[in-house]
Amino acid sequence: MLRPEKMCRVSVTGSKRAMEQTIEAVHDLDMLHVTEYDGSWDGFEPGNSLTGTNEVSDKLVTVRSLQSILDVSEEDAGPTRVVTDEAIEEQLDEVRTAVNELDDRRDDVRDELRAVEDQINTMAPFVALGIDLDLLRGYDSLSVVVGEGDSDEIEAVLTESDIGTFELFTEDSVVAVFAQADEDALQDALVGATFSRLEVPEGDGNPTSYLEELEHEKQQLESKLSTVEDELNELRLDHAGFLLAAEEKLAIEAQKGEAPLTFATTENAFIAEGWIPNERYEAFERALSSTVGDAVDIDRIEIAEYNSEGHAESHEEVEREGGNGGEPVGSSVDAPEPESESQPQETVADGGVITMGDDAPPVIQDNPSGVRPFEDLVEVVNRPKYGEFDPTVAFFLTFPAFFGFMIGDLGYGLLYLALGYGLYSKVDSDVLKSLGGVGMWAGGFTALFGVLYGEFFGLHQLGEIVWGGSPPMHKGLQPTYSGYALAWLTMSLLAGTVHLAAGWIFDFVENLNHGLWDAITESGSWLLMLFGLWAWVFSGANGAAPDFLYTAEAGVFAGNPYAWGFTGLPAINLFTIPGLGAPFSAWLILFFAGLVLLALADPIEVVEFLNVLVNVLSYTRLAAVLLAKAGMAFVVNLLFFGAYSHHGEFHFLIGHGPEWAISEYGAEAIMFPGLIHSGIAAALVGVLILVIGHLLVLVLGITSAGLQGVRLEYVEFFGKFFEGGGKRYNPFGYERNYTTED
């Protein structure tokens, strides 16, 4: 679970005569993650595409273009089908002709419609002006300019100019200027005024009538466009299944045809390399050998061990028939040795076998089915490298618990569970399915903590039913249980210490690949500082922390139902600091020892030594969100039901009205009478507040508890050991959805 599946590098070597058959067989197996040949071997070149691949690629481009034009989606697929080359040759040409003709017609109609709409948009000022369009142009001795501007300013400018006789026609802000002057001179004169010229449309007569003609033409074009789109939709219904199946068949053929581009080839032979899960190698070898027989040699040339760099630098011994002393693998190929073992991009595996490159193995995360939904949340940061710990299981073990602790309500938990199940079972997107799975786990823990808190949508009746009025845990809002708020603050610090320690322990194990000293200085140093500082804090030495963090007398740990009785750690004071009179605790020796080790590993990191303090303090958000969400739910219920206070406890007015509480405990006990007890109108408003309020708490639970929990994982925990950058396992093959070979 903490490591990916172990991968092995496989070499497939054979004569070019068997290359196409080998490609077919390997593609059908869908196991080999192919390594691309980097051209580093003397005497070997990257292969060429199979004959006919260019034609297949051209057809694939055509099919995808037709799918785009027809807006084909996977819902249009219909049943799977057998698609032959002859069917593609005949039907594709027919469909392409019909679709292109209709698409051209649609483009023409759209262009015409766009032109008419532009004309309609330009007509509004001329309709407002109300002058026939043919009267605004075509004069020998007059110049006419129409535009938008200030008529008084235009008149003043023209009066002061050299323009002779002129007249203005104005409506709203539209102005038509008629002048006995050259048009250029008129235009120059108008430069001094606020005026934006408009082009006079080509039509004649009344602009309102012309606008009506344009509107009618627009309707005709929209009708034509609708007809063409209906015809295209009919083509989509008729041919969508064929196009999807044809695309799949052509994509498979193109994938096979381009495969040799990743091979190392000579005039007569080829070598293909790639990665497969080690446990599937025997099945791969048997299946491929049964298909191609002795035409190729299949060798497992290395088994990649895990290491902190994500590269296969350490390998298990693998017995091979082909490959020896510095030659490319494959007994059927006589290849020259490279010039040196340090030649760029060459990796020498155990036994001196030279591989195609130094690429790291692809990563297949090895997690149980219940944990896999959390893999997508890890990939938000990055996919784990082959050699580093996969944090998915740690994420699974902590995030739902953090979330459930912060919300802690059976009602909200059941809703989160239902929402998560809906996403997981109803949507097709893998990412949304994963979020649904995470939501189910988070909802389950929220419901579990809700039972322990005895709360259902913020009401405490669940505690009465299940626990007889004394649930094992309280959130700490009520005065009589306020000590729990301090307890949760303390528990948040303890949880943060353990969580961060786990991260640095993972880092310590990974750094052991570089040697024990590196692990101690780079990771052990942080562990020493973490435990030294917080052990000192929880010892209470020299007033290092408030009493409630470590003394049972404060009532937090001794007074709760668990009776933990935690009285803090022993101070272990060694001596008194000269000049200060303060004792020096042995716990601080651990802290300073870690600081020295950190300086030996990387002096620059010393400036971040306070991370052991601030990172743990960051976990106090667990207690903060717990109290905030509990307070919001309480306020919503308070407004609707009302509540009274008695002996430091709040009780909602569910079975009784405020009058009963006043008679029993006095008017001062009433916190709020409740909208449900204040008349029909107030009760209706109260129902609205109740529903919207709890929905708001539900949503904010995701955006606050969810995001805060994720932040603790990504920033505080992952940052201690996780880098990411692994490659996804992408085997050479194709998962058929629309076609069948039978």
From TrEMBL:
Q: Which spans does this entry mark as compositional bias, Basic and acidic residues?
A: 307-322
| Gene Ontology process terms (BP) | vacuolar acidification
Stretches that traverse the bilayer: 393-418, 438-460, 481-506, 526-550, 586-610, 622-644, 680-702
> For the region Disordered, what residue ranges are annotated?
307-357
What GO annotations for molecular function exist for this entry?
Answer: ATPase binding; proton-transporting ATPase activity, rotational mechanism
InterPro entries tied to this protein: V-ATPase_116kDa_su
How the protein sits in the membrane? Multi-pass membrane protein
Show the coiled coil region(s): 85-119, 211-238
> Which GO CC terms are listed, alphabetically?
proton-transporting V-type ATPase, V0 domain; vacuolar proton-transporting V-type ATPase complex
Localization in the cell: Membrane
Keywords noted in UniProt: Coiled coil, Ion transport, Membrane, Transmembrane, Transmembrane helix, Transport
Briefly, what is this protein's role?
A: Component of the A-type ATP synthase that produces ATP from ADP in the presence of a proton gradient across the membrane.
As for family, the record states:
Belongs to the V-ATPase 116 kDa subunit family.
Question: Which PANTHER family does this one have?
Answer: V-TYPE PROTON ATPASE SUBUNIT A (PTHR11629:SF63), VACUOLAR PROTON ATPASES (PTHR11629)
What protein am I looking at? A-type ATP synthase subunit I
Organism whose genome encodes this protein? Haloarcula quadrata
